[in-house]
What we know:
Layout: E1 18-22, H1 27-43, E2 46-53, H2 57-61, H3 66-86, E3 95-102, H4 105-115, E4 120-124, H5 131-134, H6 137-144, E5 149-152
Parallel strand pairs: 1-2, 1-4, 2-3, 4-5
Amino acid sequence: MTEQQPSQFERGTDGPKVIVVGVDGSASSFRAAAYGGGLARRQGALLAFVYVQPLLAAGAAMGAPVAETTDEIAESLMEELRHGTELFKGIFDLRWEFHTFRGDPYTGLVTAADELKADAVVVGASEQAGHRFVGSVAVRLVKTGRWPVTVVP
């Protein structure tokens, strides 16, 4: 007969290490960022903000400076997130990064979550009425089933 060792609780070894939050400048994405920030703070996880720069083929074909415009949006988002996190500096310890990917939002978030080895994904609910019928990025991420996905209203 073998003797059983008492199980020991390992403090701080469970829970997510990387939380990906999709941001696009919408109100629901900023609520998702705040929610993800709280999760990351409580879990001691890295918060990875991800902005997916859309590929606007029609605009590029007409000579519009699409890449410059989406780069400006990414820069603006990063500044807003930096300002938001600076408000809590010294009060809360939060590690965060900002990443940009190009493509459609769903594919970009999947790529980001895979490359960053995400343990969880947080996104804002779609604010477009048609997505209730066609399906939103959030619904597609949930159906992918590779990480826990939190959809923030």
